[in-house]
Automatic annotation (TrEMBL):
One of its GO terms (molecular function) is FAD binding. Its cofactor is FAD. Catalyzes the hydroxylation of L-kynurenine (L-Kyn) to form 3-hydroxy-L-kynurenine (L-3OHKyn). Required for synthesis of quinolinic acid. Its main location: mitochondrion. Keywords: FAD, Flavoprotein, Membrane, Mitochondrion, Mitochondrion outer membrane, Monooxygenase, NADP, Oxidoreductase, Pyridine nucleotide biosynthesis. One of its GO terms (cellular component) is mitochondrial outer membrane. This is Kynurenine 3-monooxygenase. Residues 14-318 form the FAD-binding domain.
Length: 378
């Protein structure tokens, strides 16, 4: 018997591949149902890492996402750690700031550690899925020392993001529909440090610098920094090749941010990581027999101009859980039903996100500052 849920512990093994936002939440849902859950994440455990490599993006948590968190008792915990956004703050090229009232916005701090509170869940970091077989459920993982480990599961849940290794097996199968589209814009993150231990700008705002074909936004973090995200066509990013050119560019378009980010930091950080691509992925079906199912970005990566990528992924978890209840946890009925119910909704979100992007490009002057207008719904 599982003490936390009062349900009997089942013998079935559910392997969640990918310990990102959706994988971590999914692990909670399956653990709550008493399955033996194993999470496999290619990265190291960031709670123990001395240096955390890569990027961190702030995310708007909407009603969809909150409902899913509520189901596993995490809504309050996560939302209380978020920073509410009351308005957008539009920065003009001259540095003038104008607030536009807004909904609420939050930062999601959700790690696999939440899943670890269930005794029937095991987290396996530094386990990169190399290959797997749909017929048997046998997966091969490569560990950080190069060694391989083979593990079998009754159900494999692919939550390994936009470039999913799980999805590769789907692509080899007949009647699997798949499309991906890269947009011409990329994004780059820059950090605005605190000043005398305080936020460098007003914290309860989504700061926006709309500039025709490109824009920058800034969101507050709990450590009093702001993450500034610059969205711009790749060809524009590539035109800037020296530190002086970075300063010249910022002087022209975002002069008020230079003293706040710091000119040395700007010269350095602009070249720290290349601009990141944004891809939209649509596929169908989301399952293979009773063995494997895709969720989150692995099933439907969307461009971030509708702010619903993570929220849609969280909603996948709750929809799946409801179908599990409805079909008595019989995977052979649950998986096809999940595809039937979920594919049209996820495709609609992907289309809306792309539509918003195209709209913004078409009406550059008027629309960029409405970026992420979806957040009004929160
Ligand atoms: P990921 O977060 O990508 O996690 C996948 C995990 O799988 C990773 O931890 C990865 O290391 C692991 N993995 C990958 N390959 C393997 C492998 N072979 N073996 C084992 N593990 C593997 N969404 C919102 O709802 N609101 C927003 O405001 C918002 N803003 C965004 C802004 C930007 C700039 C971007 C790029 C995205 C934004 N999104 C937003 C989308 C959101 O970030 C994603 O939808 C969400 O992170 C998807 O979660 P996921 O768990 O499915 O995938």
């Amino acid at each position: 018997m599982d003490k936390s849920t009062g349900r009997p512990t089942k013998k079935k093994v559910v392997a969640v591949v990918g310990g990102g936002l959706v994988g971590a939440l999914n692990a909670c849902f399956f653990a709550k149902r008493g399955f033996n859950v194993e999470v496999f994440e290619s990265r190291e455990d960031i709670r123990q890492a001395k240096v955390v490599k890569g990027r961190s993006i702030n995310l708007a948590l909407s009603h969809r996402g909150r409902q899913a968190l509520k189901h596993v008792g995490l809504e309050e915990k996560i939302v209380s750690q978020g920073i509410p956004m009351h308005a957008r703050m539009i920065h003009s090229p001259s540095g003038k700031q104008s607030p536009i009232p807004y909904g609420k916005k939050g930062q999601v701090i959700f790690a696999p550690s939440e899943a670890e509170t269930y005794p029937n869940t095991k987290l396996n970091f530094e386990h990169k899925l190399h290959d797997w077989t749909a017929e048997t459920g046998l997966m091969t993982f490569v560990r950080s020392d190069g060694s391989k480990e083979q593990i079998k599961a009754d159900l494999i849940v692919g939550c390994d993001g936009a470039f999913s290794a799980i999805r590769k097996q789907f692509l080899r199968r007949s009647r699997f529909n798949y499309s991906q589209t890269y947009i011409p814009h990329g994004y780059m993150e820059l950090t605005m440090p605190p000043i005398n231990g305080q936020f460098a700008m007003k914290p309860n705002y989504l700061h926006i610098w709309p500039r025709n074909t490109f824009m920058m936004i800034a969101l507050p973090n709990l450590d009093k920094t702001f993450t500034c995200t610059l969205f711009m066509p790749f060809e524009e990013f590539e035109k800037i090749t020296t530190g002086d050119e970075v300063i010249e560019f910022f002087q022209k378009y975002f002069p008020d941010t230079i003293p706040l980010i710091g000119s040395d930091a700007l010269r350095r950080d602009y070249f720290r990581l290349p601009a990141q691509a944004m891809v939209s992925v649509k596929c169908s079906p989301y399952h293979i027999n009773d063995k494997c199912v895709l969720m989150g970005d692995a099933a439907h990566a969307v461009v971030p101009f509708y702010g619903q990528g993570m929220n849609a992924g969280f909603e996948d978890c709750i929809v799946f859980d409801e179908i599990m209840e409805q079909f008595n946890e019989d995977f052979s009925s649950v998986l096809p039903e999940y595809t039937r119910v979920r594919v049209p909704d996820d495709h609609a979100i992907a289309d809306l996100a792309m539509y918003n992007y195209i709209e913004m490009r078409a009406h550059v002057n008027s629309k960029w500052f409405l970026f992420r207008k979806h957040v009004d719904n929160i």
